[in-house]
């Protein structure tokens, strides 16, 4: 598995397994078993996915070595603030049956539209994240769904800048400005919903390109993220697709093909504006 390097030197696998909407414990156990055999180590979860306990049980019962996993978790919006984020992290560690996380992320920014004190809220949550990092409970820290104005504000008080920004990215949502912004500041971008939650898989232009490249549409979407230098986090409940989603290093997209994908208009996905997200999601 190809790895990228975060600003603090921590290596992160470029393809990880998304786990949102996978709650059944037997399904998770089976998927984690197959994923481990195939060479996945990055598991992307969140307190809000309600599957941390199942993931903790799965990797320990399967006898996977902790050092062979890259566990990434997220603090939910109801746990913003210096103290709350630290206590949330400790609870998540217990559920995941581990004493450290490889990556811990703020799930959503508090945004100016909904909170007068959004800058303070984000700054205080981030201070708690920095504390966890200093204590060695997390090897790297970052954010999700932060736009440039959220990052600009955070940079005024942060001692350590986020190492990762996990944002929705897929054909139809190329996030070009945000990716450039992050790249200039050494922030690694992770693509959440790299298949647009399944919606982009029926796009006619992508289907045509997939035929030409002798790949599946899912593989074209993932290759698109890989060529941009992103970490991609596809989710599947199908063990065969787990394998398919890793097989993207034997295909290259030309500049022209990349530009064609960049120009695809929005064609589905999650599409939530981070500035509209409340405490409840
Ligand atoms: N930070 C955030 O706010 C945030 C938000 C959204 C997502 N995420 C992360 O990103 C991960 C992925 O995003 P996502 O769950 O929205 O979905 P996604 O990976 O964009 O798409 C998943 C959909 O594509 C299908 N699929 C997967 N591989 C396929 C393949 N090779 N061929 C055909 N269909 C395929 C899946 O169906 P099957 O299961 O039937 O294969 C499912 O319907 C999440 O699980 C989560 O870890 C983070």
TrEMBL record:
InterPro entries: AKR (IPR020471), Aldo/ket_reductase_CS (IPR018170), NAD(P)_OxRdtase_dom_sf (IPR036812), NADP_OxRdtase_dom (IPR023210). It comes from the Bacteria. The record marks 74 as: Lowers pKa of active site Tyr. Substrate binds at residue 107. Keywords: NADP, Oxidoreductase. One of its GO terms (molecular function) is oxidoreductase activity, acting on the CH-OH group of donors, NAD or NADP as acceptor. The keyword NADP applies. The active site is at residue 49. CDD domains: AKR_AKR1-5-like. The keyword rRNA-binding does not apply. Residues 15-264 form the NADP-dependent oxidoreductase domain. PROSITE patterns: ALDOKETO_REDUCTASE_2, ALDOKETO_REDUCTASE_3. Belongs to the aldo/keto reductase family. PANTHER family: 2,5-DIKETO-D-GLUCONIC ACID REDUCTASE, NADP-DEPENDENT OXIDOREDUCTASE DOMAIN-CONTAINING PROTEIN. This is Aldo/keto reductase. It comes from Selenomonas ruminantium.
């Amino acid at each position: 598995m190809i790895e990228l390097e975060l600003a603090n030197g921590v290596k992160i696998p470029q393809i990880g397994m998304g786990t949102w909407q996978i709650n059944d414990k037997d399904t998770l156990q089976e998927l984690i078993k197959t994923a481990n055999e195939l060479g996945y180590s990055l598991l992307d979860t969140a307190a809000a996915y309600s599957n941390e306990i199942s993931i903790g049980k799965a990797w320990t019962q399967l006898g996977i070595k902790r050092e062979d996993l890259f566990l990434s978790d997220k603090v939910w919006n109801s746990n913003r603030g210096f103290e709350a984020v630290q206590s949330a992290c400790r609870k998540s560690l217990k559920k995941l049956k581990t004493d450290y996380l490889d990556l811990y992320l703020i799930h959503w920014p508090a945004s100016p539209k909904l909170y007068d004190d959004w800058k303070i809220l984000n700054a205080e949550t981030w201070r708690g994240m920095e504390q966890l990092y200093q204590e060695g409970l997390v090897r790297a820290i970052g954010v999700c769904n932060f736009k440039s104005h959220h990052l600009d504000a955070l940079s005024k008080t942060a001692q350590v800048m986020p190492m990762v920004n996990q944002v929705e990215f897929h054909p139809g949502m190329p996030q070009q400005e945000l990716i450039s912004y992050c790249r200039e500041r050494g922030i690694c971008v992770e693509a959440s919903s790299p298949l647009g939650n399944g919606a982009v898989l029926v796009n006619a232009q992508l289907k045509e390109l997939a035929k030409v490249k002798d790949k599946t549409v899912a593989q074209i979407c993932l290759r698109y993220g890989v060529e941009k230098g992103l970490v991609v986090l596809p989710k599947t409940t199908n063990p065969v697709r787990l394998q398919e989603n890793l097989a993207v290093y034997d295909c290259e997209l030309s500049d022209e093909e990349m530009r064609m994908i960049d120009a695809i208009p929005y064609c589905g996905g999650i599409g939530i504006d981070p500035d509209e997200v409340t405490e409840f999601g």
